[in-house]
Each structure stands twice: as C-alpha cells, then as structure tokens.
Amino acid sequence: MLTLLRILRMPVLAMLTLLIALPLHASAQQLVGRIVASVNDDAITDFDIDGRIRLIAASANAPVNAEAQQRYGRIALRELIDDRLKAQEAKRLGIAASDKEVGAAIQSIERNNKMEPGGLMKELTQKSVPIGALIDQVKASILWRKVLRRRVLPQVRVATNEVDDALNRIREAGGGFVARVAEIVLPAGTPEDRREANARAAEIRTQLAAGAKFPELARRYSRSPTAAVGGDMGEVQSGQLPPELDEALAALQPGQVSEPIYADGAIHILLLVGRQGVEAGDSRDAVITLARLFLPVSSDGDAEALAAQAKAAVSGLDSCDAFEAAARRIGPPQPPRIVDARIGDMPEEIRDTINDLKAGEQSDVIELSSGVAIFMLCRRAESGDSLPTASRIAEALQRQRAERRADRYLRDLRRLAFIDIRG
C-alpha cells in the first residue's frame, strides 16, 4: 500500500495521475453529497467549497476556522463558478488541458516560490488542503489561457498612432523610469463588479499585511493573464501604463505595494519590485520620418501668397498619407516624404521647427531661400537603448486591451449561464 510519504516523493506528473485515481478519504466523502450550486449542467458541492476555502486560507497563511469559512466562503463559490464556466467554454471549443500541462504549471509555481520539487503538494497536505482543489484551479487557469489565445488575442489590435502617442509621453517625461512590476487585476466594469472588486482588494491588502506572498495572491485573485506567473509584468517603462498606474508607481519604493487603483475598468494592486531611471537621449540623435510640402518661389514671386497657398492645401489634415497626397497635387514632382532622417543632420531652420512636433502634427510654414515648406511628423524614434521599442509598447497596450476583453468575455458567460445557488 502506498504511504503518504511515498506519494509526496513522486514526480509531480505521476503524483497527479495517482491522486486523480485514488478514492476520497472517508471524512471528505461525507461532504460530497450536498450540492451547493449548479452551473449549467455542472454541480458544485460542499466538498468543492471546503477544498477551495482551505486553498485560499493556505495562500493567506490563515487558519481554517469558523471565521475563515465565513470570510472565504463567498470568494470560494465565486471562483468555482467562474472556473466551471471557463472549463465549459473550453470544452465547447474543443480545448483540453493535459496532466502534463497541469504538472508543469505546478512545478512553475514551486520554482517561483523557491520550493523543492513536490514542496507545494507537501505543504498543502500539511495544511489539510485537498490536492484536487489545487489541480482543479490550475487546470481551469490553463484552459482559460488557451481560450483567450484563440478567441480574444486575435481580435486585439494596436494602431501605430497609439504606439507613437505612448512614445511621445515617454519622451516628454524625459525618459522616466523602467520598473520591474507585479500586478493583481480585479475586474470592475459594472457597479456590482466594482463593489466586489473593492471588497476583494481590501481582503488582499489584509492578507498581505498578515504575511501572504504577493505572487500567491496574484495567482489566486488576479484576472490578468499575468496571474499564471504570479502577476509578474516584467520590466515596464513609464508611459506604457495608464496615467493613474504610472503615477502610483512613481510614488512607490522597491518592495512596496500600492493602494487599490481604479483604471481602465479594473481595480489594480501593484508591487514595485525594482526601478531605475533612464535618460531620454540627445534629441538630435532621434530618427524621424516626415511628410513634406514644398513650393518653390521664383525670383519675383510672392512668398506670402505661396505660404498662404501651402497652408490652405494641408489645413485640417492629421495623417501623413493625406498630407502626402495634398503635397503631390500642388507641389513639384519630388518625393514628398523624408524617411529615417536624423534630426541633427537637418538644416537648422527646419530642425528647430520640427523638433517639438508630435506624430500627426504640422509645422508652421518655413520660409527657405528657394521656397516655402510645411512638414508633418509621421514617426519619431529616440536614440538610446534605455527607451522601450515600439514592439514592447505595442505588447503592453495589447495586454491591457486583452485583459478588458477577457473580463467582458467572462461576464458574458456568467450572464448567459444558468447558475443556481442553493441555500
């Protein structure tokens, strides 16, 4: 007969396979009979609720007593309902999670918490947490990530001008900072969700004060895709996040956790792991792309009239394509776009005028010795490796947008489901 010690020494995958096949302990079997809620055709039993409460309490380093049952009961039920909905949607789409994937996810949790292989299972067993409660939660998380990759991420688009706007904000901030950040994101798109998110955020702050680890709470509570890695967002450049979050990060010291912050339809709690300042670089080394309208003036021509004609031709235009089309219509047959030019290499009278332009903005009319010109900035790339690349900013914007879509997706699943909660 297998002893508990021998089970705990097994590789994670073998342990999972065995635990799924093992019969329930007698005390656990006593809980299985009563259905607490049903989600479409799936039941949630008192055993499920008890296991999830114990898992939550273990994450918070809290004892399982009457107070914990009351405090975590509603949270456990809401999590289990959501997990059933996620699993049902995955099944509808033909998506599955293998034992190997579940085992790898648990090993990742152990590595992130600096545990020995099998350490998480051992710790949960010592705290009387059913291993199945962890397996069910991890499996639901894997399934949901796969659903989002198929149904949400392909629909998320980030426009070039949005990336340019973010880069401009970073440049205007003088480079700002690069921060290593972890997050917990709680959906708050409706008044009901916001009330629940505020209550959940207060509970998270209480657990952190009691010694709970931020990564564990992120895995449990966060609805961001980063929950799978303990909320770790990696390195974040100032200007990439919504202004409310940027401001909160700027006020934190490494190791500090923010108060709950409302932004973009969610409550955010941020952990600043570390931060370093960055320099924006010499603006003369910036590489730009310009759209150009140039009208030559003859020796006896009227420069003022020519300037008025140029302004009228591009008045109200806010895209380089439209500006370029206007330049082709009234200007001489020359390329109307200057691509990848270094600002410092341009004539002084042009450089001084375009240096402070933002993408999509036009310069004033510039009188040159040979005519008049108006420029529009299409793109600007700052010098220096410390500033984020356009692809990094696009990824951050895509992640934020995907989080909001994922929240709406789950809300829609709740709204369309038949959920019966029994007293």
Question: Could you characterize the architecture of this molecule?
Answer:
The chain has 423 residues and is α+β, with helices and mostly antiparallel strands. It folds into 3 domains: 147 residues, Triger factor/SurA peptide-binding fold (Orthogonal Bundle), CATH 1.10.4030; 145 residues, Chitinase A, domain 3 (Roll), CATH 3.10.50.40; 99 residues, Chitinase A, domain 3 (Roll). A 4-stranded antiparallel beta sheet has the order 4-3-6-5, with helices on both faces. A hairpin with a 2-residue loop joins β5 and β6. α2 crosses α6, α3 packs across α4 and α4 packs across α8. The N terminus is likely disordered.
Indicate the proportion of strand residues: 15-25%
Helix fraction by DSSP (H/I, runs of at least 4): 40-55%
CATH fold-level name of the largest domain: Triger factor/SurA peptide-binding fold
End-to-end separation: 41 Å
Average pLDDT confidence is: 80
Strand order of the largest sheet: 4-3-6-5
Described by strand count, sense and barrel closure, the largest sheet is: 4 strands, antiparallel
Strand tally is 11
Could you give the order of the helices and strands? HHHEEHHHHHHEHHEHEEEHHEHEEHE
Overall CATH architecture of the largest domain: Orthogonal Bundle
- CATH top level of the largest domain is Mainly Alpha
List segments where confidence is low: pLDDT < 50 over at least 5 consecutive residues: 1-15, 17-31
Pairing-aware structural class of the strands and helices?
Answer: alpha+beta
- CATH 4th-level superfamily of the largest domain: Porin chaperone SurA, peptide-binding domain
Number of helices: 16
Question: What's the Cα radius of gyration?
Answer: 29 Å
